[in-house]
Specification:
Helices cover 44% and strands 12% of the residues. With 504 residues, it is α/β, with parallel strands linked by helices.
Length: 504
């Protein structure tokens, strides 16, 4: 959105400049003035503003609760997802944009924004205790937070337990505006009720989006097709991904044993299996026309996509499963990709800044389509890595909290999100213009899968078990059948909870 505004403004400036070449001075002046006025009007029109009342919050504290799964495995190496933890300017684009946005809102509404980072305060890595903690403070009447940004599994538990409020009922949240993710709203609305969503109030949704990186050195060495043109032409498919990966796998030292010293078609980790399902246009579960959640995983498309991908993923001569090595973090994977030992790297967008010291260039592209007839690319927002905006019942001041959240999201679209793009695209390695267009495609075709988030039948783990080098893993049809009864029971319970909470 921000880049479109800039592009329009520059185009209009060029138009006004070209008018100076006319022979009639009055015509030149009139044309230039008209173009300038048009630029101002159209640029203003291009930027919508939040329709909010002018409110003086009287210096009120507006604390934000933050809870997430920590990337990197521990509180030292992990990537914090605290959007409101910036306390000083550091020269780092995303930090400074967040701080300036938050300070702007503090001044505008005469309030004090602070954050409580549950992970950092408790030295925790995972989300396990977050929902229980929030339920405890809510039921005790101790919820003093304006709103919360918490991990997906936790929001799901809180939603079905009646702890979250319906965001559609908040007078000052204009969820149809572009600073809220319309895909999230569409995918996560159950029975006309939305308990959690995301948008420009946070960049954690971007970080948690699955993507494919390709190493340009390897691509050039093998005279591979232009990946960007392939994507734009709609020809970036699962079959092509598998073919190119097979072509670029090499036993570099010739010892017949593939390990981290060799070259692979792709480096990836377990969660990618869920992204493969979604990229084929299938969800584990989604909301039907009746507004209820339904299982949708068991399709011929799923069987075919996983039937191709799982054997490939388990072939250790083509795919490097970096979670199977002694250091199961992403350290080895980053080193290998930086050393040009893989054509593709399937991970989350949050991996990109970690590659800023990589000498070789790489590009960013979406997940491949199931086939060329598929209309769109689909890119999963990882369930374990997700963070959603929500408002538990009994928060500090619902009216002021919704005003502040709307204002933060709106301003974030024009400040924080552009800074995120800048940080991602202007790292030392990812510096080509084509990747900007790819990010637009990736973020505009995101998938929020309720089946993965609610972990129905534990299908998320079972699909990953098919990929893991697990001798007891079942093929899809038998695995699905063995879990279907429990999954359907869990779906029924979730729907019943939503009926009760939503008052339907």
């Amino acid at each position: 959105m921000n880049r479109k505004t800039i592009a329009l403004f520059l185009a209009l400036l060029m138009l006004s400049s070209s008018a100076v070449g006319c022979s009639d001075a009055d015509t030149q002046e009139t044309t230039a003035d008209t173009a300038a006025e048009t630029a101002a009007v159209e640029t203003e029109t291009e930027r919508p503003y939040a329709d909010l009342p002018e409110v003086d919050m009287g210096g009120a504290d507006m604390p934000v609760f933050i809870g997430y799964n920590l990337e990197g495995g521990n509180t030292v190496d992990g990537v914090s997802k605290n959007e409101f933890g910036a306390t000083e300017l550091t020269g780092e684009a995303i930090n400074d944009a967040r701080l300036e946005r938050n300070q702007m809102m503090e001044e505008r509404y005469n309030c004090k924004i602070s954050s409580f980072d549950y992970n950092a305060e408790n030295g925790l890595t995972y989300h396990d205790n977050i929902s229980k903690h929030i339920e405890t403070i809510v039921m005790a009447g101790d919820n003093n937070y304006a709103f919360m940004l918490i991990q997906g599994y936790s929001t799901c538990k809180l939603a079905v337990n009646g702890i979250l409020t319906d965001l559609y009922q908040k007078e000052h949240l204009a969820l149809d505006m572009p600073w809220w993710d319309q895909k999230a709203n569409e995918n996560l609305t159950v029975m006309d009720t939305l308990f959690y969503t995301t948008g420009d109030i946070s960049t954690a949704d971007n970080d948690a989006t699955c993507t494919v990186l390709f190493n340009k050195v390897v691509a050039t060495n093998y005279n591979l097709p232009d990946m960007y043109e392939t994507v734009k032409d709609g020809k970036w498919t699962l079959d092509l991904f598998l073919s190119l990966s097979e072509e670029t796998s090499v036993d570099l030292n010739g010892d017949g044993a593939y390990d981290e010293t060799d070259q692979y078609g792709v480096i990836m980790w377990d969660d990618i299996c869920m992204a493969v399902v979604n990229s084929a246009g299938v969800k584990c579960a989604e909301v039907g026309s009746d507004g209820r959640i339904a299982l949708t995983l068991n399709t011929e498309r799923t069987i075919d996509a996983l039937g191709k991908f799982i054997p490939f993923g388990r072939d250790t001569t083509q795919c490097f499963q970096y979670q199977r090595v002694k250091d199961a973090s992403d350290t080895v994977a980053i080193q290998m990709f930086s050393n040009n030992q893989s054509l593709f790297f399937m991970q989350l967008m949050q991996i990109v800044p970690k590659l800023r010291d990589m000498d070789a260039d790489f590009g960013i592209i979406p997940f491949p389509k199931y086939d060329e007839s598929q209309q769109e690319y689909y890119n999963t927002v990882g369930s374990w890595h997700s963070v959603f905006f929500c408002m538990p019942i009994g928060n500090v001041d619902e009216n002021n909290a919704s005003i502040l959240a709307e204002a933060l999201a709106c301003e974030g679209m024009y400040t924080v999100t552009p800074a995120y793009y800048d940080m991602t695209l202007k790292s030392k390695a990812a510096r080509d213009e084509e990747s900007a267009a790819m990010l637009d495609i990736i973020f505009e075709t995101r998938v929020y899968d309720l089946g993965w988030y609610y972990q129905f039948g534990m299908y998320n783990e079972e699909v990953m078990n098919m990929y893991r080098l697990n001798k007891t893993a079942k093929e899809f049809s038998s695995m699905y059948a063995s879990k279907e009864k429990s999954a359907l029971t869990e779906v029924d319970k979730a729907n019943a909870a939503f009926e009760a909470v939503a008052g339907n």
